[in-house]
C-alpha cells in the first residue's frame, strides 16, 4: 500500500519491525520518528546540522544519529547554512542568502552502512539538497540493487542540480529494475522507487497506488496547505 511519511512516499509491503531505514538528510528527524512509530523498525538519521542532530538525540533514543553530509568521498565539505534550515546544503546556489558556512564531515553511503554494521537497507530516504548527484555517482549498481525502496527528493526544481542530472538518476534506477511512482504534481520533489525483488507489490496494488492513492494523497496535501494558509492569515 502506498502511504506518505513526512512528505515522502513509501510502500508498506516488505516493511516490518525487522526493517532498516536510512534517512539521508534527516533534518529534524520527522521521517525517521514516524517510520519507527509506525513499523517499530531500526532507523539511522544522517544529518550535517549539529542543531538538528542534537534535537533528534534529545527527543528519542530509538534512532541512531550520524552527524555528516553524504557525498562521493569521505572527508570534509563546506556546509552552507540557510535561515530556512531545511534549505541548508553542501551544494550552494548563487544568490542564496546563506548565514554562515561550516566545515562538516562528509561520508559515502558505503561508509555509513559499514559504521552502523548494516548489511541490508529496506528504505533509503534521500533529501540531501542537491547532493543526490554525487551520492548516486558513488554507489555501485550492486549496492543500489540490494535496496528495497528509495524515496527521493530531486532538487532540479530549485537549481541545485540540472534536469539532466535527475533524468540520469531516474534512468539508472529504472534500468536496475526499480518501479517508479511520482507523487508530486509539477516537479520531482517526491518520487518513490521500489524494488520488486524485495517489495512484493501485486500488479493490481501498483495500479491502485498509481491511479487512486497517489491522487488522494495529493488532494490531502493541497487541503493541508490551504488549511495552513488560512491559519496563518487568521494569526
What is the fold-level CATH name, i.e. the topology?
A: Rossmann fold
Helix share bin: 25-40%
- Uncertain runs with pLDDT below 50, 5 residues or more? none
- N-to-C CA distance: 37 Å
Q: What's the overall average pLDDT, rounded?
A: 91
Total domain modules:
1
CATH architecture: 3-Layer(aba) Sandwich
**What can be said about the biggest beta sheet?**
7 strands, mixed
Q: Could you list some keywords that capture this structure?
A:
Rossmann fold, 7-stranded mixed beta sheet, 3-stranded mixed beta sheet, alpha/beta, 12 strands, 235 residues
Question: What do you see in this structure?
Answer:
- The protein is built from seven helices and twelve strands.
- With 235 residues, it is an alpha/beta fold.
- The chain has one domain (2-70, 112-234): Vaccinia Virus protein VP39 (Rossmann fold).
- It is globular and about 50 Å long.
- The mean pLDDT is 91.
Short description:
Helix content is 35%, strand content 25%.
Fold blueprint:
Blueprint: E1 2-5, E2 8-11, E3 20-24, H1 30-39, E4 42-46, H2 50-59, E5 63-66, E6 69-70, E7 75-82, E8 98-107, H3 109-115, E9 123-126, H4 132-137, H5 141-145, E10 149-152, H6 163-175, E11 179-182, E12 191-194, H7 203-234
Parallel strand pairs: 3-4, 3-9, 4-5, 6-8, 9-10
Antiparallel strand pairs: 1-2, 7-8, 10-12, 11-12
Amino acid at each position: 500500500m502506498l502511504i506518505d511519511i513526512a512528505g515522502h512516499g513509501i510502500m508498506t509491503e516488505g516493511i516490518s519491525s525487522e526493517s532498516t531505514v536510512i534517512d539521508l538528510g534527516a533534518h529534524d528527524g520527522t521521517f525517521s520518528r514516524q517510520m519507527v512509530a509506525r513499523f517499530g523498525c531500526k532507523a539511522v538519521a544522517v544529518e550535517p546540522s549539529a542543531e538538528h542532530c542534537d534535537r533528534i538525540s534529545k527527543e528519542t533514543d530509538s534512532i541512531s544519529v550520524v552527524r555528516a553530509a553524504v557525498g562521493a568521498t569521505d572527508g570534509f565539505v563546506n556546509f552552507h547554512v540557510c535561515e530556512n534550515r531545511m534549505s541548508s546544503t553542501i551544494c550552494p546556489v548563487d544568490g542564496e542568502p546563506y548565514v554562515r558556512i561550516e566545515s562538516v564531515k562528509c561520508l559515502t553511503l558505503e561508509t555509513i552502512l559499514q559504521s552502523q554494521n548494516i548489511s541490508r537497507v529496506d528504505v533509503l530516504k534521500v533529501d540531501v539538497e542537491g547532493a543526490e548527484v554525487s551520492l548516486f555517482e558513488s554507489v555501485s549498481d550492486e549496492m543500489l540493487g540490494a535496496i528495497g525502496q528509495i524515496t527521493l527528493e530531486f532538487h532540479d526544481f530549485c537549481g541545485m542540480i540540472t534536469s539532466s542530472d535527475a533524468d540520469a538518476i531516474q534512468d539508472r534506477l529504472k534500468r536496475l529494475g526499480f518501479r517508479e511512482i511520482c507523487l508530486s504534481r509539477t516537479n520531482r520533489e517526491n518520487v518513490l522507487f521500489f524494488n520488486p525483488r524485495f517489495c512484493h507489490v501485486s500488479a493490481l496494488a501498483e495500479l491502485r497506488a498509481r491511479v487512486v492513492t497517489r491522487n488522494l494523497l495529493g488532494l490531502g496535501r493541497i487541503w493541508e496547505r490551504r488549511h495552513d494558509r488560512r491559519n496563518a492569515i487568521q494569526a
